[in-house]
Design brief:
The protein is mainly alpha-helical. It has 3 helices and no strands. The termini are far apart.
């Protein structure tokens, strides 16, 4: 397995572990990872190479790649905002313990 795929696999597994532990931080990490994939894809395409998705034989066009990355960023950002708002609305469990 090439090193770039091992790094991506480790990042996705780490993101999954963080997401299971904490929804907010998992979403924040998802945004960071999606931004990283976007920068990597931009750099790869700027060098003249093509980007494929999940091993498909036909490479993604630049507009399709950036649409997918933008959707990943949007979904993770909305999840982060939603979980942050839920965290702020939830009463603390020790508020009535005094």
């Amino acid at each position: 397995m090439p090193i770039d795929r091992m790094v991506m696999l480790a990042a996705v597994v780490g993101w999954a572990i963080v997401s299971f532990a904490n929804r907010f931080w998992g979403a924040v990490l998802g945004v960071v990872l999606a931004l990283g994939v976007g920068v990597w894809g931009w750099h790869t395409m700027a060098g003249g190479a093509q980007v494929s998705f999940l091993g498909l034989q036909r490479p993604l066009s630049p507009p399709m790649f950036f649409t997918l990355v933008s959707m990943l960023i949007l979904v993770n950002a909305l999840t982060a905002v939603q979980s942050w708002r839920q965290r702020r609305r939830r009463p603390s469990s020790d508020a009535g313990a005094h």
